[in-house]
Amino acid sequence: LAHQGFPKAPHQTPLEYVAALQQDGPAPDHLHTVQAIVAAYVRWRYGGQPQDVTRLQTQARSLWRRSRQSP
Question: What's the start-to-end Cα distance of the chain, in Å?
Fold first, then answer.
């Protein structure tokens, strides 16, 4: 998303970044994917819940491809 003009500031947490994207961020499908990835990260990092890494990698690759195609 940084490629599209939506970089994450060094001081932002993942949840703060998602909140900022909701204000004036990328297309809704990009935002939905970022929200899903961040939610999984938070569940893993702070809740200790295992996540489906394969699914998350697929979502991240899809987001990357879509962001590279968008102007």
Answer: 11
Residues 6+ apart with CB under 8 A from 12: 20
35 neighbors 16 (Cβ within 8 angstroms): no
0.90 exceeded by pTM: no
The residues, ordered by sequence, that sit 6+ positions from 6 with a Cβ below 8 Å of its Cβ are 21, 25, 26
Concatenating the DSSP letter of every residue in the chain gives -GGGT-PPPTT--HHHHHHHHHHH-S-HHHHHHHHHHHHHHHHHHHH-----HHHHHHHHHHHHHHHHH--
If you count them, how many residues does the chain have?
Answer: 71
The model's pLDDT over 5-63, given as tens digits with 9 standing for 90+, comes to: 889 999 999 999 999 999 887 888 888 999 999 999 999 999 999 999 999 999 999 88
